[in-house]
Amino acid sequence: MEQFWLGLLVGLILVLVAQKTLQSRKEVDGAFAHFGNHVKDVIYIFEVKPTFRFRYISPSLDLYLGEGVVAENYENPDDCFRRIHPDDYQLLMNKVSGKMSYDEAISQRWRTNDGRYLRFEEYTTPIYKNGEIVAVQGIIRNVEAAVMKREELEYVSRHDELTGVLNRRAFNETIDRLSFKKVGLIVIDLNDLKKINDHQGHSAGDQLLQKTGLLLQGLSENVYRIGGDEFVVLTDQLQQDELLDLTVSIRSMFESNYISAAVGAGWEEQLNDFKKLYDQADQNMYKQKNRSKTNRHVPC
Prior knowledge:
Layout: H1 2-19, H2 25-36, E1 42-47, E2 53-57, H3 61-65, H4 69-75, H5 79-83, H6 89-97, E3 106-111, E4 117-129, E5 132-142, H7 144-158, H8 168-176, E6 183-190, H9 193-200, H10 202-217, E7 223-225, E8 230-235, H11 240-256, E9 261-268, H12 274-291
Antiparallel strand pairs: 1-2, 1-5, 3-4, 4-5, 6-8, 6-9, 7-8
Helix pairs in contact: 9-10
């Protein structure tokens, strides 16, 4: 569908260019408006020279940014520069000054009347006269819903459904980015999950996992569940002494919440073999597990 509208726009532009030698500007803009007034995408012509002004904006812009926005921009074209997201301002300036490639879609965010920023995707065509840009015309599509859906799917694909912490896929993706960095790893293994599942049911085991995830997220943003009863904290933001302090805090937190878990840490100043780091943390975790086999878990 997107290619259809883009192709239709390109065809329209070519027709308009061909007609410019035969028609007055008023007639050309009228043909453009006839098309633009009947589509939900936003179509516009913005004149750069001799002065900044909109020659046409389709009424659909009011549907997205709020009533009266079209009229305001006809009267005061600076309004669009005030509505652009601050991080996209330079992109807008490049667009109207010809300092960018127009071959690909432009992504930008615009502020609505109620203060929200919506995301749009635009295909733009510059208009030149005597070698200099005099106007830009384009078609803008509201992609907020599509972007939110894509972000939602991305979130689901990288988070554990039960606990809300990051999952193994996210863990593997993070490992790939950590080569040659200082990296700390904390491995956490719940001692009693199988026993609780067998004697109290899986709902009780799920509650233990959820509580564990919630508690760990209170201490770090970099928590992953990589197995049934195994969590890890993986970070390149801490020094070695800070990682050890975090390990102590995690152990203390579990004890105060009556959760029986073994915790072990590993550290590499410059990571070049993740398996070596993981084995280091895993071995330290099993050392603690062997020392604390008598710990009892009180149901949460």
